């Protein structure tokens, strides 16, 4: 990746570590299950948690690199000088949705912390698993904001040039 390419290094590392942990945990469980006819009790609970972390960290990386699935037909039809308006609308809709996830995720995390709820599998406090949802949604909002500003800046710079 070149120095000018968009980066989301903390989220990339988090996603890579989560994927590595899921692979190691799952492989270890398979080996133990086939050699001893028993299995690790923690694998499902940790694997689900790590897959959620992997998904949201990956979404933040995708947001920063402008590689989220989207329909570009409208974008391509619009004149370059109007594209920043579309980018702003896309950003606002995404931030609204993620903001709701942050709000309700934080509320749920606080309630689980207040109630001292424990996970059914291992008996760990559930807020430890839930706190990652609002935090990683905030990371996605931050990366979407960076992406939107970069895309608008590129359009404004290209807007002064001849439009084909």
UniProtKB/TrEMBL annotation:
Part of the tripartite ATP-independent periplasmic (TRAP) transport system. Coiled coil: none annotated. Its main location: membrane. It is found in: Cell inner membrane. The chain crosses the membrane at residues 47-64, 85-106, 126-144. The keyword Cell inner membrane applies. It is a multi-pass membrane protein. It holds the Pfam family DctQ. It comes from Oceanisphaera sediminis. This is TRAP transporter small permease protein. Residues 23-153 form the Tripartite ATP-independent periplasmic transporters DctQ component domain. Keywords: Cell inner membrane, Cell membrane, Membrane, Transmembrane, Transmembrane helix, Transport. The keyword Cell inner membrane applies. The complex comprises the extracytoplasmic solute receptor protein and the two transmembrane proteins. Belongs to the TRAP transporter small permease family.
């Amino acid at each position: 990746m070149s120095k000018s390419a968009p980066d989301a290094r903390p989220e990339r590392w988090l996603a890579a570590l989560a994927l590595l942990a899921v692979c190691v945990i799952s492989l270890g469980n398979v080996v133990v299950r086939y050699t001893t006819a028993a299995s690790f009790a923690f694998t499902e609970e940790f694997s689900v948690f790590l897959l959620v972390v992997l998904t949201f960290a990956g979404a933040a990386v995708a947001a920063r690199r402008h590689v989220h699935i989207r329909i570009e037909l409208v974008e391509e039809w619009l004149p370059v000088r109007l594209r920043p308006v579309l980018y702003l609308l896309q950003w606002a809709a995404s931030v609204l949705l993620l903001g709701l996830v942050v709000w309700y995720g934080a509320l749920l995390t606080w309630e689980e912390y207040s109630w001292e709820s424990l996970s059914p599998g291992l008996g760990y406090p559930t807020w430890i698993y839930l706190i990652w949802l609002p935090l990683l949604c905030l990371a996605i909002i931050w990366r979407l904001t960076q992406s939107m500003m970069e895309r608008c800046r590129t359009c404004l710079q290209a807007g002064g040039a001849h439009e084909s």
